[in-house]
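Reproducibility note. Readers wishing to regenerate the assembly model reported in the main text can use the exact inputs given here. Chain order matters: entities are listed in the order in which they were concatenated for prediction.
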Amino acid sequence: MRDVAIIGCGFVADLYLRSFALYRDVKICGVFDHDADRLKAFCNYWNLPSAPTQDALFASLPKGALILNLTNPGEHFAVSRACLGAGFHVFSEKPLTLTMKDARALHTQAQAANLHFATAPSSVLGQAAQTLGHALRNDTIGTPKLIYAELDDGFISQAPYKSWKSESGAAWPYGDEFATGCTLEHAGYYLSWLIAWFGPVAFVTSATASLGGAYANKAPDFSTATIYFKSGMVARLTTSIIASHDHQIRIFGDKGVLAMKRAWDNSAPVRFHRRFTLRRKLVEHPLGKRLRLSGPTHPKVKRFGAAAMNFALGPIEMLDAISAGATPRLSGDYALHLNEVTLAVAAGDTQKMTTTCIPMEPMPWAL
Ligand SMILES: NC(=O)c1ccc[n+]([C@@H]2O[C@H](COP(=O)([O-])OP(=O)(O)OC[C@H]3O[C@@H](n4cnc5c(N)ncnc54)[C@H](O)[C@@H]3O)[C@@H](O)[C@H]2O)c1
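Running the prediction on these inputs yields the following structure tokens for the assembly.
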């Protein structure tokens, strides 16, 4: 049995539970939320054991359990620190922490206690990201030169977001989402893939703007960043809750373009658009060729709201690695570096990275 506990059972926790339902050998052995009503609603819906306090949760868990920190970003550091302090491995929702001082403190604490900590998103271990990684390793587009990645979510201030609810009835936490900002909330979805494929970032130049809406005076609602990798790769990443919905990533190489349109869908098609000349024109094949991995990949969840992602991929891989005595692909070094790059993308200036990590091993089914 893989033992998993949860702290924070709001909107995203239901997406985790729907994903864990795909794995028969996962036991959710305890749940805590400081909102007693939310805790009760969630545990009743999923038939899970609740703990009245965080310390009671820690006392009830088996040694070696993995705690998922699904609290709000401003709470991530304190909750993860408490979990590591109580002797448990931690998988935190993103962003890992809101400052690098806090992220470094967690990294040091985990290392000293011989514990693992990791950060979402898990989609880097999903089929779409792994298919793109496989194509890059196999020279499909020749030498990759430049990446354009978009995480635009549409004009969210005009969406009926006040009525969005999770499966067990948690309201979408729009106040917290707008205060944290779309860049800290979303940049990690593509940054995690880029760091996994191309390794550590050298520096980031970013610009942000607060363009307003119902959530004026909150965090910027637009950012664009140019990300320079130590390997020489260059990527441009855009996030906004203003521009029309666009979640595509395009990787431009000297033989053509790799393209994928749905960042939050593990099953999204990956296409290769070959570049060629036709009489006096330079053409990129308009339809492209769909690329597929040869065997089965991982369990998939149905779409709920904006996402069709298996949120359990990271925690499951982490538990498998820990029980095999290996370092998880979502390692502490990777979490620290991803957090530094994410904070730099949101900063609206130029920052040299001080942390590093190694490129991520592909999943065994994507070799
Ligand atoms: N909402 C989404 O669609 C979504 C998707 C992916 C990731 N996330 C990430 O998941 C995390 C949680 O987001 P959410 O949308 O579920 O928020 P939410 O506000 O719906 O849920 C957070 C829950 O954590 C609880 N909580 C907060 N601090 C706590 C503490 N110190 N101890 C115990 N419980 C505490 C709150 O009471 C709340 O029930 C965030 O980091 C967010 O970025 C959200």
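We highlight two features of this model. The mean pLDDT is 96. The two ends are 27 Å apart (CA to CA).
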